[in-house]
Fold this protein.
Amino acid sequence: MEKIYLDDFPGTKYRVSLIRESNDASEWMPLSNPKDVFEYIKPLQDKDREYFVAIFLNTKNVPLGVNLVSIGDLTRSTVHPRETFKAAILASACSLVFAHNHPSGSPTPSDCDIQITKRLKDAGELLGIPVHDHIIVGNDCYYSFRESGQI
C-alpha cells in the first residue's frame, strides 16, 4: 500500500495536537463521587468570574488532567460542546466531569446551566465520552447534577 503524505495535497495543511502544559507527578485517587470532585476543584470557589473546566478521566475515574474551557464574567461563561470536547478527544478521555464556579457563592444552577448540561451530556453520548457529572462550586458548597438526578 502506497503511503500518502500531507504534502501530496494542495492547499493549507493542518496538524492536530494536544500540548501538556504541566505534569503533576502526584498520584490522584479516583473521583468516585461528587464530594471527591468538589475537593479536586475547590480552588474555583475563590475566582471572581466564572471558570468552566472539563476534568478528563481514565477508565478508573482517575483524572488524566483538566482543561480550562472558558473564562466568563461575573454571571456566565460561554460553553459550546464542540470546543468542550475537542481536548477530551485528543487526551483520549474515557469520560468527563464538568465543573464551574458561581462567584456569587450560591451553587444553585441557572436555567442556562441546566440547558448546557443537557447539551454536553447529549454530545458526550454521541461521541462515546460519557459525562459523569457537572458540579457547580459555591462558597464551601457545591451542586451536583448527578446527585440531583439531572444526569
Q: What stands out?
A: The chain has a mean pLDDT of 89. Helices lie at 34-41, 81-90, 111-127.
